[in-house]
C-alpha cells in the first residue's frame, strides 16, 4: 500500500485563548492594572467579536460596491462605521 504524497491543507485551529501572551502584554502596557482571573478572557472575547463584526461589515461594503475582492478601503470604511456606533 503506497502512502499518499498529498498534504492536507487543513490547519489545526487553537481552541484556547493565548492567556500567557495576553497577561504579558497587559503587564508591559499597564503594570499597575489589576485584572480579575477571567479578565484576560473577556478582553480576548471582545477582540474576537470586534474582528468578526469588522469582517461582516467589510464584506457588506465590498458587496455594495459590486467588488469581488475586499480592499483596504472597504476595511477602513467598515472600521469607521463600527467605531462610530460603539462611541454613540
Automatic annotation (TrEMBL):
Instruction: Tell me the keywords, alphabetical order.
Output: Cell cycle, Cell division, Centromere, Chromosome, DNA-binding, Kinetochore, Mitosis, Nucleus
Subunit note: Heterodimer with CENPT; this dimer coassembles with CENPS-CENPX heterodimers at centromeres to form the tetrameric CENP-T-W-S-X complex, which is a subcomplex of the large constitutive centromere-associated network (CCAN, also known as the interphase centromere complex or ICEN). Interacts with NPM1.
Q: Which Pfam families match?
A: CENP-W
Q: Give the protein family.
A: Belongs to the CENP-W/WIP1 family.
Please provide, alphabetically and separated by semicolons, the GO molecular function terms listed in this UniProt record: DNA binding; protein heterodimerization activity
User: Main role?
Assistant: Component of the CENPA-NAC (nucleosome-associated) complex, a complex that plays a central role in assembly of kinetochore proteins, mitotic progression and chromosome segregation. The CENPA-NAC complex recruits the CENPA-CAD (nucleosome distal) complex and may be involved in incorporation of newly synthesized CENPA into centromeres. Part of a nucleosome-associated complex that binds specifically to histone H3-containing nucleosomes at the centromere, as opposed to nucleosomes containing CENPA.
Q: Which Gene3D superfamilies match?
A: Histone, subunit A (1.10.20.10)
One GO CC term on file = nucleoplasm
**Known InterPro entries for this protein?**
CENP-W (IPR028847), CENP-W/WIP1 (IPR052484), Histone-fold (IPR009072)
Report the locations given in the UniProt record.
Chromosome, Centromere, Kinetochore; Nucleus
The entry's protein name is: Centromere protein W
User: What biological processes does GO assign it?
Assistant: cell division; chromosome segregation; kinetochore assembly; mitotic cell cycle
